[in-house]
Amino acid sequence: MPVTVRIPSVMRNLTNGAETVQIQAATVDQMLANLEAAHPGLRAKLCDDQGKLRKFVNVFVGEEDIRFLDGQATTLKDGETVDIVPAIAGG
């Protein structure tokens, strides 16, 4: 089932500048694996060595933060939009 993944601007160099990519995935974890297969280097920016999302990376399915759903096991439906939002520090 394809989902649309919105790529943050700081990571678009790994997607040849694409703002969104279509990925086949049934869960967020599978989406992350398939993102890496399609765009090598992306998962390392998003996940730690154990494959868990880095603390500064927020992922939303629709408008729901996956931290309040099933985390990386969150189910994805055909046609859904997934937003990857890295936290930005500054002041």
Summarize the SSE layout with pairings.
Layout: E1 2-6, E2 20-24, H1 28-38, H2 42-46, E3 57-61, E4 64-65, E5 81-86
Parallel strand pairs: 1-5
Antiparallel strand pairs: 1-2, 3-4, 3-5
Account of the 3D structure:
The chain has 91 residues and is α+β, with helices and mostly antiparallel strands. 18% of the residues lie in helices and 25% in strands. It has two helices and five strands. A hairpin with a 2-residue loop joins strand 3 (57-61) and strand 4.
Short summary of the structure?
This protein has two helices and five strands; from the N terminus they run ββααβββ.
Query: Would you count the extended β strands for me?
Result: 5
Count of helices? Answer: 2
CATH H level, superfamily name:
Beta-grasp domain
Unreliable stretches, pLDDT < 50, 5 or more residues?
A: none
Provide the residue-averaged pLDDT.
Answer: 93
User: What's the CATH first level?
Assistant: Alpha Beta
Structural class: alpha+beta
Characterize the overall form: globular
According to CATH, what is the topology? Ubiquitin-like (UB roll)
Rg calculated over all Cα atoms:
12 Å
* Assembly type: single chain
CATH architecture: Roll
Give, in order, the helices and strands: EEHHEEE
| Largest sheet strand order | 2-1-5-3-4
